[in-house]
Amino acid sequence: MSRLLAGYGLIFFAFIYAPIILVVLYSFNANPINMMIWDGFTLDWYRLIFGMQTSITESSAYIDSTKQLYASVRTSFTVAFSTTLISTIFGTTLALAVARFRFRLAGFYRAIMMVPMIMPDIVLGIALLIFFITVGIHLSIVTIIIGQCTFLISYVFVTVSARLAQLDSAIEEASADLGATPFQTFRKVTLPTIAPGVFGGGMLAFIISMDDLVITYFIAGTGNTTLPIHIWGMLRRGIKPEINAIATLMLLLTIVVAGIGLYLRSRQK
After folding, report:
1. How many domains does the chain contain in total?
2. Nearest to 242 by CA among 81, 30, 5, 40
3. Is residue 32 a part of any domain in this protein?
4. Helix, coil or strand: residue 141
5. Which of 12, 16, 23 is nearest to 250 (CA)?
6. Which of 26, 192, 208, 245 has the highest count of CB atoms within 10 angstroms of its CB?
7. In a domain, 122, yes or no
8. 155: domain CATH number?
9. Domain hosting residue 11, numbered range
10. Are 187 and 103 in contact, with CB atoms under 8 Å apart?
């Protein structure tokens, strides 16, 4: 039985990680025509992305526009930083309100906060698109930020709520008994204790925002292309070698941000 489980585990991990490893591997393939045929090691695709001199001839045939790529990266970072800040503030505030205040529909409210997380992305994207058109809001980078915040707040809410569940309320009561005001108790006791959860939720929101495609595709205006949408547009015209390099850089960024978030999330004060 143990060998069977071990074999199943190996097959499962191979199924999950083998495609990712291939993407990283072929991002260094020198073959400009067929990326599935290994033709030597090169860093030209990374140099091409960063606008550096390469040995690739007629490089414009392989990359649509470096300016468009950079513009989509700037848009993605602008959206990610904005949504992370907004969703972290609102998600943390909501988690504190539900955890500290007793009201009749608290359980129902927690369940409602889970709905954006479990709702299919395409359904949420269509719903947001209909809402923005109905109220007359022009599709732009603002609608992307608003749309992403509708579900990213839920992720932060769940992460911070889990941290609050580990917090002993007697510590806050002791702070109040010693003469601290509610704000002082929050600033010096509550916030430092839940800080790993807050930072972890913010990092999670940042990663999801950077990688989101389906919902953003519906609510993005003309000229507000994010990096995932830009990559999707490139893929529709064929798999090009530099796409593997872009995907590898996104994977590296995700790993770094996720590592920081997990470290902060697990840190005990």
Report:
1. 2
2. 30
3. yes
4. helix
5. 23
6. 245
7. yes
8. 1.10.3720.10
9. 2-42
10. no
HSE on the CB side for 184, CA within 13 Å? 9
Q: Which residues pair with 174 in a beta bridge?
A: none
Residues 203, 226: Cα–Cα separation, whole Å: 19
165-169 CB contacts, 8 Å cutoff, 24+ apart: 165/99, 167/193, 167/194
Check: CB of residue 232 under 8 Å from CB of residue 217.
yes
* CA-based nearest residue to 109, from 92, 97, 124: 97
Residues sharing a CB contact under 8 Å with residue 254, sequence separation 6 or more, in sequence order: 207, 210, 211
pLDDT over 70, % of the chain:
90
Report the phi/psi class of residue 152: left, alpha or beta, with left for phi > 0 and alpha for psi in -120 to 50: alpha
**In-domain check, residue 61:** no
Q: Rounded distance, CA 181 to CA 206, Å? A: 33
Is residue 45 within 8 Å of 57, Cβ to Cβ?
A: no
Rounded CA separation 137/195 (Å): 35
Q: How far apart are CA 205 and CA 159, in angstroms?
A: 10
pLDDT at 269: 46
Q: What is the pTM of this model?
A: 0.82
Determine phi and psi for 29, rounding to 5 degrees: -80, 130
Q: Which CA distances in Å does 126 have to 23, 77, 114?
A: 31, 24, 19
Specify the DSSP class assigned to residue 13. H
Residue type, 157: F
Predicted confidence (pLDDT) per residue in 18-34, tens digit: 888 888 888 888 877 77
Counting beta carbons within 10 angstroms of the beta carbon of residue 59, is it exposed (0 to 12), middle (13 to 18) or buried (19 or more)?
A: middle
- Nearest-10 crossing angle of helices 191-211, 66-100: 140
Q: Cα separations (Å) of 62 from 79, 93, 238? A: 28, 47, 10
Q: What is the pLDDT of residues 201-248, one digit of tens each?
A: 888 899 899 989 999 999 998 888 898 998 888 777 766 777 888 888
